[in-house]
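Example record

The entry below shows one chain as it appears in the dataset: sequence first, then structure tokens.
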Amino acid sequence: MAITHSFTDATDLNLGGAWSDDHGRPFCTWTWDPASRQVAVMCGSKEKKEKLSHSEAELRGEQLRKHLVRLALHLAEEINPTK
């Protein structure tokens, strides 16, 4: 099974993104709340949140985008170990 990540809106990181299967069906989604510095990942009925450290939250632009996707993927793998 191939997994594809896409941002909900490439210009608004707060909306996060999703991972989709071969048929384009999303199976995990994530959002970013800059005010609370929290990433939330939802896979079905399971959810996991993690707060970024102050230094991580200081990232901007492309560095922040890449960091959020990596962190969200890590959280998704924790709550949905099927790869």
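Notes for this example: The mean pLDDT is 86. The longest helix spans residues 61-79.
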